Amino acid sequence: MIIKSNCNLMHKPVLLKETINLLSNKKNSIYIDGTFGDGGHSRELLERNKHCKVYAIDRDPNVKENVKLFKKKYSNRFKFISGRISELEEIALSENLKDNVNGILFDLGVSTKQLKDNKRGFSFQNDGPLDMRMDQNGETAEDFLNNESEKKISDILFNYGEEKLSRKIAKAIINYKKGKKIRTTLELVKIVKLVKKTSKKQNINPATKTFQAIRIYINNELEELKAGLASSLKILKNKGRLAIISFHSLEDRIVKNFFNTHSGKIYNNSRYLPQLEPNNNIKNDLKVITKKVIKPMKEEIELNYYSRSAKLRVAEKI
Predict the structure, then answer these.
(1) Can you give the pTM of this predicted structure?
(2) Last residue of a domain, one of 184, 219, 254
């Protein structure tokens, strides 16, 4: 996620100190940054612990310029692997990291560069093509909106954006595309605003939840998170820590339920947890470090309004 100050975007992730402080900081530690992005967390880990090594993963090919800078500065202490967090176990096995990882981090927010690049279609503040793909593979947001039914669009907005006006917005989308295809981000914003007005209490763009929902669907983000959590448990060493920063209730619910279930607080499986094998009992293999979710301090929110929704949860493998 990003910091916004004096209208300038800076490469600084949300809850940086809180996150790094709670990850293992032993000499010669091995970390996995599962969502490299702008590299803020990886940089902090490498700067704080001069003897650690960071394996960074990202599905976005556009991080390659940043990767070059890291390789030049940190040499053999930094290695980048192109991939998804759902491939974490496979990547760890290929790098001989299984049971050798001291800390794993997922920062689930959209990166600064992704938001600033209008061609990516993530921002509802600037005009650009309706893409929203993290890795440039598969269906675009434009494909989805122009080809899917009203019911499918409504379901996605409701389930992934928790949008109360999902049916009305879906109907407005269908009515609009009867005349022409929806191709740009600001076209979509305009359609949403026909149905949903800006809140008088909160200065939040009416299209926020719609963009969130479509992005989550296009990139299969919740399934990626579930798989990444399950894989993390398999590759962390004993007392290794898993830190997750989420930015909306769907992500946080998945993380909270996973942590609680694997620490013995919940015994029933749910649709938010990674799928278990039939009759497979869940082990109590985690200790929750953050008894209460950690949120940004007032000072951080004042610097960065977007950080207001960030939540950090940390657990330790036992």
Answers:
(1) 0.90
(2) 219
